[in-house]
Every structure is written in structure tokens, then in C-alpha cells.
């Protein structure tokens, strides 16, 4: 069978599969362990001109020509960033080449210090002698753009499947970022035949810059309110809430922070200050040794906006549908008392406070954890509020079961000293006890001395499926003052609260035989000078089957919030059953002191990126209807809500949460959940619409072939891959998985090897009418092979662009260049006749135009 040549009335044989022929040719070829040249049996090759064959590049296993190559380093199947690698003729065998691993690269491998001192070097001390470590091997693979290193694990620092030692941490590349969370709501309310309309715009986020290992961050928040027809002007404000610079100190396993911050302490209460801190960072430890972030839970009566703040600064803001919610992605650096507001769409507000209490302060044997800080207390307007202070605390793992911890805070007018001990009770859990003594000299001349005593406990009851996440008790004498209370008393002359006792319990229990899970949360706070506050909730959830209905879920939540002398009691009941492929139908009922609500809802997914919920129901005040839609766009997370109640109110809301990241390697808009967090810029070699996956919904690269994967785990090996199932037909991924271990706040950069373009059959002719030798390769302008010449000069080209200039290589160098026509065959199967002109020292624009015209004519 023959294929007609496009535009030429000749017949040629179709191209043969060169890789198969080369494999067959190896039947008589042998290669030794020292990589001797392979002898090809060319008798099995069906070629017309046996003298016109170039198989030099295949004749030596693993041979790489001398020069510099940009390669990804793969150490024991763990990937390091792409970097330039030099190949030099080997000292013992100049006919072969050897990769040069400089000292800067060897540091990234993560060798133990005692083995690092044993290393030998060659090429004037610039390159690692591979033989200096028994069992170490190096294998280049230019096809996958990778240099593979295999090193016995005994030489390596500790690592786990998802964690790398500090030697492999990546500070990323310089760049700018802008993260935002914007909310807009319009409402129409009927009150006693009086219609009021208005809108509310709010937002928060940060801008930042990365330079080397430094992270510069500035947080902002804004608010715009207006009631139409009220006669009031538009109320608007914009403020910068915090300026911070920080970096990781890998050698100390610590984080250095300059600027405005909240005191990060496990002993003393948190307050805002401007200064410097050095804190040992658990995030730099392996995952199983890291701490946890606080969790906020509650029940929304309607579609609501949840705002978590601390001393006036918004930490977290999101829209949630009606029902129970849990916020688990707060930054783990947050500590102290946080205020929670649940702003319902009917205008009501739930408010309560939570304490980010931590688990008992235990440290592994021989380890020391510490937190140092110094500065001046400030308010949210960046004004100094108190005298200079310095604080420090530590936890020392004395032995397998005992930890000693303590700390102090010193200043001109306020001093505090704390000491405690923690005990691992093994099967009985973990327990800690500490005492804090404070001394405050007030402006009125009075000096207060007082103590505070705290007991904390945690335990997992594996046999019965129970877990005490945290239980604690604290008693403070009336004369005891925290730094925050002292600042308030010093500046305002009043003390808004004087804490007395606090009980905290969080317990969960699984009844596996019944398929039932129970959660209990209890907070009790008493004061010396005002009413006690209580907050507790009990939730039950059970999954079960009824007839043909499978995986039904029934949940019941009861809660009480006693805040500033007022009780807010409520019960929430819901029943949900699957409906269709991915949808569900549910009933929910809410009972509280103000109203009873009954609601029937249907929810479903829209592709891989969206979900929605529609509901209808009734309350004491009339019928209601609502809708909630969420979509994970490439550039932002989009949430939209709409609610209406007959004769009462109508409201519509929209929330956008996303970011923009710009670097010298490119820029992209993206989704983001944690403002200012760690992210990875991926590059698909300028190819647009390549699907990228990490977790959650996939995203597509923008028109420049860039995408940003945000919310990466810091100091944790993250993997990002191309979704090959969704890859466009005209694209091919030579490398579909990248990984990175990034320091906190870093902008990482990784590149995928992607070839995009059309495919075509071609016949190459040289200027004298002959053809390139069998085995010659065709490379595009990115120096990537896109085809191998077969018998008769035929070649199958992939990933090509119209009008693209390519070069043909044999005898280990470029011999001539060809230019593709501006119009390629529509079916991709007709053969092009491509003239290949000898390379000139400097090709002019006129020369290239002439070659292009000639190619068009032949086509």
C-alpha cells in the first residue's frame, strides 16, 4: 500500500516504526557493564541505502554528549527541582561522559553529616566522585529530562513518604501575590409596611512579596454599607490591619517574624504587638510530629456569613448554607481568644467566643521547643499601647514520659513567670499542670500580684472509639492579670473582664455497632466581676439503610450559648438520603427561642467543579425559599446565595475568594483558601488549557501555559500532576507529575514537559536531492525530538506548529533546517515534502522567507 505525496505526483513507502527496528537490530548487539559500544546487526533493517545510516546516538547505552543540560534530579524516587547539570568526559574513560554533581547540588541530596565528610571530588574539585559512596549510582535519561540517583538509605537523613529533610526544602522564586475574599449582599426588608433596601460590600485579604527566603505580607480589610432611602450617607472604610515579614530558619527548625503579630504562646494569653519573634515551628517536623489548628463549629439557621476575628482583625470569612458547619482550615499560628459571628440572611446574628486551647505541652525526649518574642503592644490602628516587653518559653523532653515547660514575660510595668510539667500517662492519656504568677504596676500606683493555675488532659479511648480532644481547667485569682488585661487597664482605666474559672471539654464517641457518632463540646467561663458565660453542644449522627434506600444519614444537634447574661438555645434536626447519581434530598428543622424553621432541600453536583442546593420551607412568619451555588473556577472560588421569606425579606449574596500570583516565570489568577499561603506555579511550556490536578477540582493552564496551585502544605512533599484523561488531543505530556517541598509562604516553580501541536507525515530532501541518513532526528526550536528519520527520508512529526522552523541532526550535530508550511494537511495523514537547507552562519530574514515560499510551493 502506498500513500500519495501531497502536491507531488509520486509514490513513496509509508514510514516504518524505527523504535521497533532498533529493538530488532539489538539481537546481535551486546553492552557490557562498562557501557561498551553496541554493535547493531543492520542486516535485519529493510533500508534501500545501507551506507546511509546514522545510529551513533543509539550505539552507546546511556551515553550523553558533553555539555550542559537542564535536568530534574530524582533521588531515590524523590524529585528535586530542575537545574543545570554539566557532563564532562570521564577521567578513567574519556570515551564516556559523567554527570558533574557540584557541592551545591550534593547539599540538596540530604546526606548525613558523617558521610558528607567522606566524599571525594574530581574535575578540579568541582564534581562529586560517585565511587566515594559505595552503592551510589547515577543514570541520566534525557528522554524524560531526568537524572536518576540511587543512594543507599543508610547514607541519608531521616525522610518519610511525604516529608523531606531540610536539605531539600525549596524557598521558591521571587514574586508578588494578592489574595482576596470579597463578599457582596443586597437585601430588601419589610418592617411594618416599611420597605428598606440596602447593600453591603466587605472584603479582606493581603498583598505580599517573596524575596529569597523572606516573605513580606500586608493584610487589609474593607467594608461598605448603605441603606437606600434612609437619608444616611454610604459608610465605607478601608484599613491595613497588619504588616509582617517572616522567614524560615531551617537550621534552628524555627520561624523568624518581624513586624506586627499576635503573641504565639502556649502559656500566656495572646495579644497584639509590634516587634520580633523566633518560634520553633512544628510544621518543620515530620507530619506525625506536627501540631493542629483550632476548629470553629456552629449551626447556621439560614444561609449565613461566618466571620472569625481576633481583636478587630478578620481572620476568616465565608458563606455557609443553613445547618451545622465546621471550619477546620484556620491558620495553625492563630492562638488565644477568637470572636465568632454568624450573620444570618434574615438579619439576626449569633455571637460567641472560643479559646484556641492546645493539647498538653509534651515534647519528645531530648528535644527542646521554644518561643521568643520582644516588642511593644499595639492596637489595630498600629498605635503603641504599652511598654517594651520580652517573653520566652520552652518545653524540654526530660525522658520518655516527662516534659518540663515554663516561661517568663518581663517589662517595665508588667512581669509574669510560669512553670509547668507534663506527663505521658500512656494508656491513661496525657496530662499537664502549670502555674503562672503575674505582677502588674498600674498607672494609679497600685501593684497587683496574682496567680493562675491550669490543668489540661487529652486521651484516645481506642477500644471504645472515644476521644477526649481536650479537657482543661483553669483558676485565676482576682489579682491575677494577663498582659492583655494590663494593657486595657493601663490605657482605659477599666478592666472589661476578670477571669475566674474556665472549664473546657471536647469529647467524641463512636458507637460502631450502631453506626452512631456523638460529639460533645462544653465551655464554661466565670468572672470575678460579671455573669458567667457557657457554651455547649451535643451532636449525634447515624448512617443507616431503609429498604432500597441506602446510606441515609440522620443528625441531631442541640446547643446553648449563654453570652453576656443572655441564653440562646436551639435544636437542629436533619435527615438526608442519596438521590440519583450524586444528588441528595434532605429535611431539616430548626427550633430556637425566636422561630421554628422547617426546610426541604435538594442538592447535587454540576460536573467536577460545581454544586448547588435549592430548598423551600416555612417558619412562623411565612414561607421561605433559598438557593446556594458553589463553583470552583480556575481563577476563584465562587459562592452565590439567594433567600426570600414571604412578607419579610429578600436577599442575594455573592462571594469571591481567589488570588493573583506574578513572578518572572509567569503569572496566573487562581483559587486560594489560605491567604498568603504556600503555592506552586506550574508551567506547561506555553501550552494552554492543560488540566492540572492536586486536590479538589482540576484547573486549566491559562493562555500562557501557567497555573498556580495554592494552599500547598508547607515543609511537606506535595505532588501535582497533569490529568492525562482530560488532555487535549493535540497535546502530549512527556512528564506528567512534579513534586515540591516548599517552605512556608513560598512560591514554588515547576515545569511540565508538554508538546502541543499538530501531527503530520513528511519526506525530507536535502539540497542535492538526497535524504538524511536513517536514524537522523528532527528537533523543534525547544531542542526536543519530534521525529526520527526512517527509510527513504520519511518521518512522522508530532507536536508541530505551522510555519515552525526545525533542524535535522546526525553525526551528533545539526546539519540542516526546514520550515513547515503555514497550512498543514487537515487529515494529518498526507505526506509533506520538506526541503532541508544547509545551516548558514547567520540566516537572514530574506533567506527564511525564501525557504518558506519554496515549502509552500512544494506542498
UniProtKB/TrEMBL annotation:
Any one GO CC term of the record: cell outer membrane
Keyword Lipid metabolism belongs to the record: no
Keywords associated with the record: Cell outer membrane, Fimbrium biogenesis, Membrane, Signal, Transmembrane, Transmembrane beta strand, Transport
Gene Ontology biological-process entries: pilus assembly
Domain PapC-like C-terminal intervals: 764-817
Annotated PapC N-terminal domain residues: 39-184
GO molecular function, one term: fimbrial usher porin activity
Pfam families associated with the record: PapC_C, PapC_N, Usher
Record membrane topology: Multi-pass membrane protein
Signal peptide: none
Cellular location(s): Cell outer membrane
Main location: membrane
Family: Belongs to the fimbrial export usher family.
Protein's UniProt name: Fimbrial assembly protein
Organism in which the protein naturally occurs: Serratia oryzae
Amino acid at each position: 500500500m502506498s500513500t500519495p505525496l501531497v502536491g507531488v505526483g509520486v509514490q513513496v513507502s509509508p514510514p516504518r516504526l524505527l523504535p521497533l527496528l532498533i529493538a530488532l537490530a539489538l539481537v546481535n548487539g551486546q553492552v557490557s557493564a562498562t557501557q561498551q559500544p553496541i554493535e547493531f546487526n543492520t542486516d535485519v533493517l529493510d533500508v534501500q541505502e545501507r551506507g546511509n545510516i546514522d545510529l551513533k546516538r543509539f550505539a552507546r547505552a546511556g551515553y550523553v554528549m558533553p555539555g550542559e543540560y537542564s535536568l530534574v534530579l530524582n533521588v531515590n524516587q524523590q524529585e528535586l527541582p530542575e537545574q543545570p547539570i554539566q557532563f564532562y568526559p570521564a577521567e578513567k574513560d574519556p570515551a564516556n561522559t559523567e554527570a558533574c554533581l557540584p557541592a551545591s547540588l550534593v547539599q540538596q541530596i540530604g546526606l548525613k553529616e558523617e558521610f558528607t565528610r567522606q566524599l571525594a571530588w574530581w574535575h578540579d574539585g568541582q564534581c562529586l566522585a560517585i565511587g566515594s559512596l559505595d552503592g551510589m549510582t547515577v543514570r541520566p535519561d534525557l528522554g524524560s529530562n531526568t537524572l536518576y540517583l540511587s543512594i543507599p538509605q543508610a547514607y541519608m537523613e531521616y525522610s518519610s513518604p511525604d516529608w523531606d529533610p531540610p536539605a531539600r526544602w525549596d524557598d521558591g522564586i521571587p514574586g508578588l501575590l494578592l489574595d482576596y475574599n470579597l463578599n457582596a449582599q443586597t437585601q430588601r426588608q419589610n418592617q411594618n409596611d416599611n420597605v428598606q433596601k440596602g447593600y453591603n460590600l466587605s472584603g479582606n485579604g493581603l498583598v505580599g512579596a517573596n524575596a529569597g527566603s523572606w516573605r513580606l505580607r500586608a493584610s487589609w480589610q474593607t467594608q461598605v454599607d448603605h441603606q437606600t432611602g434612609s437619608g444616611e450617607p454610604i459608610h465605607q472604610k478601608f484599613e491595613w490591619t497588619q504588616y509582617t515579614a517572616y522567614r524560615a530558619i531551617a537550621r534552628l527548625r524555627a520561624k523568624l517574624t518581624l513586624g506586627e503579630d499576635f503573641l504565639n504562646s502556649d502559656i500566656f494569653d495572646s495579644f497584639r504587638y509590634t516587634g520580633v519573634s523566633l518560634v520553633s515551628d512544628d510544621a518543620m517536623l515530620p507530619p506525625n510530629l506536627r501540631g493542629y489548628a483550632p476548629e470553629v463549629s456552629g449551626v447556621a439557621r439560614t444561609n449565613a456569613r461566618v466571620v472569625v476575628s481576633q481583636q478587630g482583625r478578620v481572620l476568616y470569612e465565608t458563606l455557609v448554607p443553613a445547618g451545622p458547619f465546621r471550619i477546620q482550615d484556620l491558620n495553625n499560628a492563630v492562638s488565644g481568644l477568637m470572636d465568632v459571628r454568624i450573620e444570618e440572611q434574615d438579619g439576626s446574628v449569633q455571637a460567641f467566643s472560643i479559646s484556641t486551647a492546645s493539647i498538653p505541652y509534651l515534647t519528645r525526649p531530648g528535644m527542646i521547643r521554644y518561643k521568643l518574642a520582644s516588642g511593644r503592644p499595639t492596637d489595630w490602628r498600629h498605635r503603641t499601647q504599652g511598654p517594651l516587653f520580652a517573653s520566652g518559653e520552652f518545653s524540654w523532653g526530660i525522658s520518655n514520659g516527662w516534659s518540663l515547660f515554663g516561661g517568663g514575660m518581663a517589662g517595665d510595668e508588667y512581669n509574669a513567670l510560669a512553670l509547668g510539667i507534663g506527663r505521658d500517662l500512656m494508656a491513661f492519656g496525657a496530662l499537664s499542670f502549670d502555674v503562672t504568677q503575674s505582677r502588674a504596676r498600674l498607672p494609679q500606683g497600685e501593684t497587683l500580684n496574682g496567680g493562675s493555675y491550669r490543668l489540661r488532659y487529652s486521651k484516645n479511648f481506642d477500644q471504645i472509639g472515644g476521644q477526649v480532644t481536650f479537657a482543661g481547667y483553669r483558676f485565676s485569682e482576682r489579682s491575677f492579670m494577663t498582659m492583655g488585661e494590663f494593657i486595657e487597664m493601663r490605657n482605659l482605666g477599666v478592666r472589661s473582664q476578670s477571669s475566674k474559672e474556665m472549664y473546657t471539654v471536647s469529647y467524641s464517641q463512636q458507637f460502631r455497632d450502631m453506626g452512631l457518632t456523638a460529639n460533645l463540646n462544653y465551655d464554661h467561663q466565670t468572672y470575678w466581676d460579671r455573669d458567667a458565660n457557657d457554651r455547649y453542644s451535643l451532636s449525634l449522627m447515624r448512617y443507616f439503610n431503609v429498604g432500597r434506600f441506602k446510606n441515609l444519614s440522620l443528625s441531631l444537634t442541640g446547643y446553648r450559648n449563654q453570652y453576656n447574661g443572655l441564653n440562646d438555645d436551639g435544636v437542629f434536626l436533619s435527615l438526608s438520603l442519596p438521590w440519583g447519581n450524586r444528588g441528595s434530598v434532605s429535611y431539616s428543622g430548626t427550633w430556637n427561642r425566636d422561630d421554628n424553621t422547617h426546610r426541604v432541600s435538594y442538592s447535587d453536583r454540576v460536573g467536577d467543579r460545581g454544586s448547588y442546593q435549592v430548598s423551600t420551607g416555612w417558619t412562623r412568619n411565612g414561607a421561605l425559599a433559598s438557593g446556594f451555588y458553589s463553583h470552583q473556577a480556575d481563577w476563584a472560588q465562587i459562592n452565590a446565595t439567594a433567600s426570600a421569606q414571604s412578607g419579610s425579606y429578600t436577599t442575594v449574596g455573592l462571594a469571591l475568594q481567589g488570588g493573583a500570583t506574578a513572578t518572572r516565570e509567569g503569572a496566573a489568577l487562581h483559587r486560594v483558601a489560605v491567604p498568603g499561603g504556600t503555592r506552586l506555579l506550574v508551567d506547561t511550556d506555553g501550552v494552554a488549557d492543560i488540566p492540572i490536578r492536586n486536590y479538589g477540582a482540576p484547573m486549566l493552564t491559562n493562555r500562557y501555559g501557567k497555573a498556580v496551585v495554592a494552599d500547598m502544605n508547607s515543609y511537606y512533599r506535595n505532588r501535582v500532576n497533569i490529568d492525562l484523561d482530560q488532555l487535549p488531543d493535540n497535546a502530549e505530556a512527556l512528564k506528567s507529575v512534579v513534586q515540591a517541598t516548599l517552605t512556608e509562604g513560598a512560591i514554588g516553580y515547576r515545569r511540565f514537559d508538554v508538546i502541543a501541536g499538530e501531527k503530520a507525515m513528511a519526506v525530507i530532501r536535502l539540497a542535492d536531492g538526497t535524504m538524511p541518513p536513517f536514524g537522523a532526528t528532527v528537533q523543534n526550536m525547544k531542542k526536543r525530538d519530534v521525529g526520527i528519520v526512517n527509510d527513504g527520508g520519511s518521518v512522522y512529526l508530532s507536536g508541530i506548529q505551522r510555519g515552525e522552523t526545525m533542524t535535522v541532526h546526525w553525526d551528533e550535530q545539526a546539519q540542516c533546517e526546514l520550515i513547515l508550511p503555514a497550512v498543514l494537511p487537515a487529515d494529518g495523514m498526507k505526506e509533506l515534502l520538506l526541503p532541508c537547507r544547509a545551516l548558514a552562519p547567520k540566516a537572514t530574514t530574506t533567506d527564511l522567507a525564501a525557504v518558506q515560499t519554496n515549502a509552500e510551493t512544494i506542498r
